């Protein structure tokens, strides 16, 4: 059996930065064997400068929107962003496929090993069939008109079956709601039958307009529906913010990923955190700044000891697909957050959220999590000069 031995300046095992210098032993294919003291490692140890980490997990992406890079207006607010993306859905199929391929290659080069990817179309099927990355495919359903619920659900089930056939399994695949303001009560009822044993994701409180609409039934979202020619007479508001209203509907899910949380209040964060031990708050800071020019209350999430993971969103709302760049942004605005916490969000927490913890996320024996080196020209490992490269 052929082995490789790695010794870096710093070693993060998926949970902690190890205090003493250690050597990571892997099989030739990247399967983890053990971590040992340098004195026990013998010869042929590969010496690396920087920090050695398991591969990164991108818990929220829209790979199928990669062709929109550089085309969407920045800091326009969620409503204008959604209207633009909807108007650009139909595009040249060849360009879409080429951009999907390039975006996946970008993620591979950025040290990403697994992706939670939102799917509204079958556009990514061909690229994913190559199995270059591990994917949890979230077949996203939206339908605000109650009388369209069965039609939307059947369409989502058909797309679900295509992804299951491609993967040869229904593992790491689910039917998930787009957002609370785009899923009618009848569609929720149909979706909930498919939640058990699955990770379910939803865009949560990405704009102030979402909560305003749920409280009163009025506001910016009403104008968005008007422009999209969607009738809203069936909804008059709930008298409460969106998260307390819909979160109980997710109770049958194995794991829950709430994405963005840009306007989630401290009270809502606390309520959601108590709802389930398997609820994760997904941070996509660069997309938050791109669309709403605002970040979620990350310090409050930390104070609550919440499960946090990291996503990139899409190239329609980001300049790149890099978990390291997301960590840089978090560190820039919240410099007090320690490195080991950021790395845990990017590795073992992400693997657990996507139900991939038996395969990825840490350096436990038998796993094949990928190896990433983080290097920096500055004083800090995570700063504006940081870069990463994939080792295995």
Counting DSSP E segments of at least 2 residues, the number of strands comes to 14
Number of domains: 2
Number of helices: 14
β content, as a range? 15-25%
Radius of gyration: 21 Å
Order of helices and strands: EEEEEHHEHEHEHEHHHEHEHHEHHHEE
Structural class of the helices, strands and pairings? Answer: alpha/beta
CATH level 4 superfamily of the largest domain:
Metal-dependent hydrolases
Low-confidence stretches: none
Sequence of strands across the biggest β-sheet: 3-2-1-4-13-14
CATH overall fold name of the largest domain? TIM Barrel
Large-scale geometry: globular
Whole-Å distance between the termini? 17 Å
Can you offer a commentary on this structure?
By secondary structure, the chain is α/β, with parallel strands linked by helices. It has 2 domains: 3-52 and 380-390; 56-360, Alpha-Beta Barrel (TIM Barrel), CATH 3.20.20.140. Helix content is 33%, strand content 22%. It contains 14 helices and 14 strands. Strands 3-2-1-4-13-14 form a 6-stranded mixed β-sheet, with no helix packed on it. A 4-stranded parallel β-sheet has the order 5-6-7-8. A 4-stranded parallel β-sheet has the order 9-10-11-12. Helix 3 links the parallel strand 6 (112-119) and strand 7 (134-141). The protein is globular and about 75 Å long. The mean pLDDT is 96.
């Amino acid at each position: 059996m052929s082995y490789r031995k790695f010794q870096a300046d710093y070693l993060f095992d998926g949970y902690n930065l190890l205090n003493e210098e250690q050597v990571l032993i892997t099989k030739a294919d990247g399967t983890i064997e053990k971590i040992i003291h340098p004195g026990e490692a013998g010869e042929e140890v590969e010496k690396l400068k920087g920090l050695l980490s398991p591969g990164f997990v991108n818990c929220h992406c829209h790979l199928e929107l990669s062709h929109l890079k550089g085309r969407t207006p920045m800091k326009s607010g969620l409503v204008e962003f959604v209207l633009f993306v909807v108007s650009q859905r139909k595009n040249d199929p060849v360009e879409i496929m080429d951009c999907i391929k390039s975006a996946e290659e970008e993620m591979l080069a950025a040290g990403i090993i697994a992706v939670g990817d939102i799917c509204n179309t079958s556009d990514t099927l061909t690229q994913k069939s190559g199995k270059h990355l591990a994917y949890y495919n979230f077949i996203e359903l939206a339908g605000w008109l109650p009388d369209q619920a069965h039609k939307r659900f059947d369409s989502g089930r058909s797309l679900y079956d295509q992804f299951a056939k491609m993967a040869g399994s229904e593992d790491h695949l689910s039917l998930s709601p787009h957002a609370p303001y785009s899923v009618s009560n009848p569609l929720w009822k149909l979706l909930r039958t498919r939640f058990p044993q699955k990770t379910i994701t939803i865009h949560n409180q990405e704009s102030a307009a979402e909560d305003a609409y749920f409280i009163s039934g009025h506001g910016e979202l009403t104008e968005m529906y008007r422009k999209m020619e969607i009738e809203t007479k069936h909804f008059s508001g709930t008298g409460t913010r969106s998260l307390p209203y819909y979160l109980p509907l997710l109770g049958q899910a194995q794991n829950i990923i709430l994405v963005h949380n840009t306007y989630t209040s401290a009270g809502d964060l606390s309520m959601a955190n108590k709802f389930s031990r398997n609820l994760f708050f997904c941070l996509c800071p660069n997309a938050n700044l791109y669309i709403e020019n605002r970040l979620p209350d990350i310090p409050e999430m930390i104070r609550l000891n919440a499960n946090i993971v990291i996503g990139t969103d899409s190239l329609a709302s980001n300049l790149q697909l890099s978990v390291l760049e997301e960590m840089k942004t978090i560190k820039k605005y919240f410099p007090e957050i320690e490195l080991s916490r950021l790395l845990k969000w990017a590795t073992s927490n992400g693997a657990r959220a996507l139900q991939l913890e038996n395969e990825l996320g840490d350096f436990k024996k038998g796993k094949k999590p990928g190896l990433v080196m983080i290097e920096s020209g500055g004083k800090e490992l995570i700063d504006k000069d940081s870069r990463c490269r994939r080792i295995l």
